[in-house]
Amino acid sequence: MQQIALIAFKGIIRDRVLHGVGLVSLFFLFIPSISSLSMRQVAELSITLSLSFISFLSVVLAVFLGATQLWKDIERRYTFSVLSLPVSRTSYLLGKYLAVAFFILCVSGLLVLAALAVIMISSTMYVPDRPVAWDIILLCALFDAMKSLLLIAFAFLFSTVSTSLFLPVFGTIAIYFAGNASQQVYEYITAGGGKQLPEVLRWAANALYYLLPNLSAFDLKTFAIYAVPPDVQGLLTTGVYFVVYTAIILFCSSIIFSRKEMN
Q1: Contact 143, 57 (CB under 8 A)
Q2: Residue 256 to residues 23, 66, 72, 160, 227: CA-CA distances in angstroms?
Q3: What is the pLDDT of residues 21-35, one digit of tens each?
């Protein structure tokens, strides 16, 4: 599995994905100038733009790299030659997942370093009213990376049940939007706003809330922007939730991929 992960990681590097990331990351150079337009909250706006950009780019990479890894190998028939070796399909799947996950973590780490430099420059140019919480910014970036890893698992799940690229890409995008909105929908229904809805629809909404990933739990940007320490118990719960949910999705992906017929 380690060998497959290493080969897949080198393949991602050869595809020059880092070149595209580096080009898009030039946006960081404009953040201090954009943030200076807000004379009273320069540091806060700089933190917001930096973390939002990292989150957006990580999600894009998670969706498209996660969706193309299995599909590309099956389409080019690389999978047949690899699986003819003494390698289980589960090891192959997990190796591919680890390669994409490690690449996302590496890119996130580099982007975080750039973001910290940008935030430091902005806070030096205009001293903020409250101190910048560097530890919470790092924590926010970590949980954003965890969200991306969970999306990669969904992209692999969709890749195991589809023979085209459409379902992995758009299915993962749909999971992303649904997962970000599930908490708000659930609170609206349970708070009494959904009383006028049919009972079946309310039951379905509650069921989807527990089935879909709650991606809003990984969003700590508000805490980082206003330097408010998040609840430690909530962070631990979210961490356990991430591990368990990701493991379940990968387990289901492994079962489906092990039984998948490849012609």
Answers
A1: no
A2: 37, 16, 18, 6, 44
A3: 778 888 887 887 787
* CA-to-CA separations, 162 to 26, 156, 170, 171, in angstroms, rounded: 36, 10, 12, 11
Nearest to 214 by CA among 240, 181, 171, 168: 181
Which residue from 257, 261, 213, 260 is spatially nearest to 238, judged by alpha carbons?
213
Residue 202 CA to residue 256 CA, distance in Å, equals 31
Rounded to whole angstroms, the Cα distance separating 229 from 235 reads 11
Position 49, amino acid: L
Whether residue 223 contacts residue 229, with contact meaning beta carbons closer than 8 Å, is answered with yes
Total count of residues recorded for the chain: 263
Biggest CA–CA distance in the chain, Å, is 63
The pTM is what? 0.89
228-235, long-range: CB within 8 Å, 24+ apart, which pairs?
A: 228/133, 228/136, 229/133, 229/136, 230/136, 230/139, 235/139, 235/143
